[in-house]
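Thread: quick sanity check before group meeting

JM: Hey all, I'm pulling together slides for Thursday and realized we never actually wrote out the predicted structure for the chain we discussed last week. Dropping the sequence here so it's in one place. If anyone has concerns about the input, flag it before I start.
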Amino acid sequence: MNTTLDDNILALKQGEMLLCNLSNSAYTTPALPVFASTIGAHIRHNLDHYACFLDGLCGGFIDYSARKRNSQIEQNRAFALAEFSRILDQLAALDLREKKWCVLIDPETGPRQTQTSIQRELEFLLSHTIHHYAMVAVICKLGGLEVDEDFGVAPSTLRYRAAQATACAS
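JM (edit): ok, ran it. Output follows.
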């Protein structure tokens, strides 16, 4: 198996599990004054990126700025869970054979394209997801909600911690 793909699937399943344990109110309430955004906003943002990635693979061109920003994902936990399921199914069926893709980079000076690979984009998506999950974890904690200690922590850090625990136990 591809570790980066597996790590992305694991991260998405963590998000899915979090949503299963949240109320709709917790999903849509900001942790003011620290965060004006909600858990739902961060989840929607992440799922939008995965949708752009998967859509782009069909045409050979990935444009993360073409996010749909579907407010239902942000405001409706059940709708977000359905989107998690859809994306997880597509990732599980992903053809990892290398092909040439382009990704749109949209700096202030104007859009440009650069070549990329599935592996590189999966690395980006994982890093991006973990970054937003870390913010989600803070929002949860500010709202008095418990979050799994592994939520919002990079898989490489989790593997390192496990290796350290094994070494200390020896």
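AS: nice. The beta strands are 61-62, 101-105, 112-116. The CA atoms of residues 17 and 81 lie 9 Å apart.
JM: adding both to the slides.
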